[in-house]
Amino acid sequence: MDPLGILLLIVALxxxxxxxxSIKIVPQQWNYIIERLGKYRRTLEPGPRLLVPFVDNxxxxxxxxxxxxxxxxxxxxxxxxxxxxIDTVLYYxxxxxxxxxxxxxxxLAGVEQLTTTTLRNVVGSLDLEKTLTSREEINARLAAELxxxxxxxxxxxxxxxxxxxxxxxxxxxAMEKQMRAERDRRAAILNAEGTKRSAILMAEGEQQxxxxxxxxARDAEVLRADGQAKAIQTVFAAIxxxxxxxxxxxxxxxxxxxxxxxxxxNKVWVVPAELTKALGGIxxxxxxxxxxxxxxxxxIEVDTSALELDDSAAQALEAAQQAAREVQDIGEGKARNxxxxxxxx
Length: 345
Fold this sequence. Notes:
single chain; alpha+beta; 3 domains; 4-stranded antiparallel β-sheet; 3-stranded antiparallel β-sheet; 9 helices; rod-shaped; disordered C terminus
């Protein structure tokens, strides 16, 4: 190959290298820090950009997306002198690429150390129980302190999370026993409350049942008494409306006497004096019937030869005599059962 061809080839390669170094394509959510002859020149935004070859140089490529850093567990001593291991997760974004590049050598290492010291300061003012139950408060305090400290580095801490808090094994055993005792206590309280509530409900149910039964019995007695009162009023009104005679009343009285004498509790039964009056009333009503009561022989004789009786009067007289005989027989039978002489009428 002749020297001219070699020269042209060298020139072509040089132009390709110059073109390659002059054009930079910046991806989305990235910034390039450009230095010219070792001095900061500008920051390239996303898209194609031109540089001065051999003069401008890319100092750093900065990712503007939110990033997550997981720091290893850090030993922290609480206010009650108990050591715990705390694992943290940090969320941050770069807001000023130039500050992140020129204000600190390694912002990730700086954020890690700052997180550790801030975490020790925050947790060191709390006891173990407060530390375990106040994660939200610790997260908020850590985020505020780190955001304030990293502002000069061009970083913004968006969120800090305590992923785990590991107390010593002995403390964990004691906490488990305490939690188990607390659960047993709550279970016993709930059981006692359930038993109490059940007993109260059963007592209230029994009380309501007794009240309802009493009300039912009372209402039944009231209705029964009302029925009896209405029946008596009806019978009384019917009797007064019919205007009964003395003969009818005496006849009804004589029919009731045998029922009175039939009671099992009656050991001795005395023929009442009203019996002769009833017979006399029937005799007077029949118009002069004479009745003699033989007290010695306990027999009742009625003379009906002087008067001719109609059918109803004859039936009434026969019923009266039959009632008197039944009363007398009942009295004699009870006297024999009690081995006592029959009482005279």
